[in-house]
Amino acid sequence: MTVLQKKTESPVAHLTAEDIENLGRELDAIRAEVIADRGERDAAYIRRVIDVQRKLELGSRAVLLVSLFPPAWIAGTIGLSIAKILDNMEIGHNIMHGQWDWMRDPKIHSTTWEWDNVSPAAQWKHSHNELHHTYTNVVGKDNDLGYGIMRVDEDQRWHPFYLGQPVWNFINACFFEYGIAAYDLELGKNLRKSRRSRPEFKARYKQVLGKIRNQVTKDYVVHPLLSGPSFASTMSANFTANIVRNLWTHSVIMCGHFPNGVETFERRSIEGETRGEWYLRQMLGSANISGSKAMHLMTGNLSFQIEHHLYPDLPSNRYAEIAPRIQEIFERYGLTYTQGPLPKQVASAWAKIVRLSFPNGFFDQVAGAGAPVVAPVVSLVRRTADRAEPARPAA
Amino acid sequence: MTTTYPSPRRAATLRARAVRFAEMATTPLLPADYLDLVAPLRSGAPLRGRIEEVVAETADAATIVIRPGADWAGHVPGQYVRIGVDVDGVRQWRAYSLTHGPRADGRISVTVKAVPDGKVSNHLVHRARPGTLVHLEQAAGDFVLPTEGGKFLFVTAGSGVTPVIGMLRNLFPVADSGAVRLARSEPYDIVVVHVAPSEPHSIFLANLRQLDGAGLIRLVARYDDQHGVLDVEDLADLVPDLSERTTFACGPAGLLDALQQHHDGRGLPLLTEQFRLTTLVTGEGGTVTFTAADTVVEASGDTPLLTAGEEAGVLMPSGCRMGICFGCVVPLREGTVRDLRSGDITTAVEGDGVNIQTCINAAAGDCRIDL
């Protein structure tokens, strides 16, 4: 993938400035329609999800009080993993986006919500809502592109450090909540000597440490203590649930912007961007995951990443409903609606991470040299990349 | 054998420790968030109530009987209660008079008439169902008629008539067939002196006239353009038995001060309530008050409140500045704002605190913001 502006064949070359503004108007109209219709049904939906999540978490933790008994360990761990995923994705992520602020319920509001994650809500809201959603896929501006530790675009300069990125990525996946916290703190930038003693950074750093302490105390001290003789097994169950949640959320997030078919953008290209152009960038910069209703719920409806990026503050239960209309707009304007099943999208994202851990064109060179050992790897990486490339609808 | 009881102080410490431990087990949520699932009306919870009965009074009025939470502190008849109801998924707060005395069953009730275009009143009358949770505030209001009756004078100016109308409606409900005379209202002898710049087309005034026509009250209407500005010295002429009455006055500060002086001089009892004009005027732009910053700015109808505040030097939280990130959300205490993207109007009345995004909302009238 190369930034869209440098591509020889631009996927938007066929659109005139007027087309793009019309596109913006159509998307605005869908937004207005959903907002006008938003009401009791949506409010009932989020309240039900919260209710189910809380009962599931309570129930799972209650079962884990006797986690020494293996079936209890298994059932409790599964339940707690699901509860944590629901808390982070469908509930936390979306409430903190302000998707439910219109209900005027102070308990379900972006300004008051806190989630079961080591990154404090306030910091996550800044790096995610403000930076990522504004500068989506703009190389050098959107830190979500590789989180500052990975190279996920040909236009990011290669460095030998990136050779290890498949490993970094796996470690990041296992401890993703800590990765997010470090990322929200902009550790890479702020640990430099000149910056790390700034009071503003210190305050945020302390906030994160406090949140980590609370989370760790809950999962690894308080609940194990409550479990008495099951202390160690409850601890291991909670650890497992945290890892499952981390692996799952990491996979879903990777599928949003890393799979093949997703476009990136040059820094200068967003100067003076119009509303229509902003929408267009969100359309091309995101990828969906296809699957069942349960899968959509577990991804926090981020499986409708395209719809979410177009309308980050519309209630998540509405994304599935508007998706067919969005897809129709993509087709009418001759644009690629990138989507695929979860395993395929995850494989595509991983293939890219492996491919870009080497300098650009490296695999073509070794393949050309006919190196017998690397060839199967090369073809595998290529195959996954090819498979993930979506069929382009007829314009 | 001796029994030792923990001293109250020790019990308090133990309790605090138990609470702290429970909080450590539920962080980042609070134990209360889980307790709310099963016992929303318990002591210590935010004050709520459960609708237990909806009794239709007429085709467009109903009495809503509510079981208040354990922390309900009671009320005096004539006080009002603010009730938060979710209408179309949106929490709306309205004040209703509590027209009855404390009841043996501990429940409270409000009688609501569905007014045209009344979001909350229509919802309560036509759609509210027993079992629904509502949010409550403690009963409030000092401007309350004594329950035993007596002789009273109401002096009202402009929209200051509103709370008085509330009291009169409690005493003399108006049905389609006309005003109703209730036994409990017999001991009240009421005169209303209503002052306004000119004769308005007000539903409230029609109400007063109706009560006057039925002989339930005596109405003295004074319009500045017809009768000249009311001089409080003339009150004794308008109300000959003034000295036998307790006066309730509601209106702007000037009138209340004059009355206070007048009544103090004669040793007459007076209860006042300063009534601020809360009729929200929707227009282009307005005066925006940032309460904590103690800053007042004139904002135009096309300037986002965020920009208006920043230009005035208020420390505004901000983010994407395009309505996406919700980093700029602050409570609008009172006033009207317009969404610059859609033109939608958001209104907050005194005490509401509706959260708004300042980056995409502009003043559409005078606003007060908590910042």
The value of Rg of chain A in angstroms is 22 Å
Largest sheet of chain B: 6 strands, antiparallel
Q: Which class do the helix and strand fractions of chain B yield?
A: alpha/beta
Q: State the strand order across the main sheet of chain B.
A: 4-3-6-1-2-5
Name the helix and strand elements of chain B from N-terminus to C-terminus, one letter apiece. Answer: HHEEEEEHEEHEEEHEHHEHEEEHEEEE
| CATH-defined fold name of the largest domain in chain B | Rossmann fold
Radius of gyration of chain B: 25 Å
Structural class of chain A: mainly alpha
Strand content of chain B: 25-35%
Instruction: Sum up the overall morphology of chain A in one term.
Output: globular
Describe the protein in words.
- The complex is a heterodimer of chains A (395) and B (371).
- Chain A has helices at 17-37, 40-63, 70-96, 121-132, 165-174, 176-184, 187-190, 193-196, 199-226, 231-257, 275-284, 293-298, 305-310, 319-332, 342-355, 362-369, 375-388, and strands spanning 288-290, 339-341.
- Chain A is mostly helical.
- Chain A has one domain (4-341).
- A two-stranded parallel ribbon of chain A has the order 1-2.
- Chain A is globular and about 70 Å long.
- Chain A starts with 16 loop residues before the first helix and ends in a 7-residue tail after the last helix.
- Chain B is an alpha/beta fold and 371 residues long.
- Chain B has four domains: 8-38, no CATH class; 48-136, Translation factors (Elongation Factor Tu (Ef-tu), domain 3, Beta Barrel); 150-274, Rossmann fold; 286-369, Beta-grasp domain (Ubiquitin-like (UB roll), Roll).
- Chain B has nine helices and 19 strands.
- Chain B has a six-stranded antiparallel sheet. In chain B, strands 14, 15, 16, 17, 18 and 19 form a six-stranded mixed sheet that branches. In chain B, strands 11-10-7-12-13 form a five-stranded parallel sheet, sandwiched between helices.
- Chain B is globular.
- The termini of chain B are far apart.
- The model of chain B has no long low-confidence stretch (mean pLDDT 86).
- Chain A binds chain B through residues 28, 32, 35, 38-44, 51, 54-55, 58, 96-98, 101-105, 107, 109-111, 114-116, 125-126, 129-130, 133-134, 211, 214-215, 217-218, 221-223, 226, 278, 312-313, and chain B through 21, 24-29, 33-34, 37, 86, 88-92, 319-320, 322-327, 329, 341-342, 344, 354-355, 357.
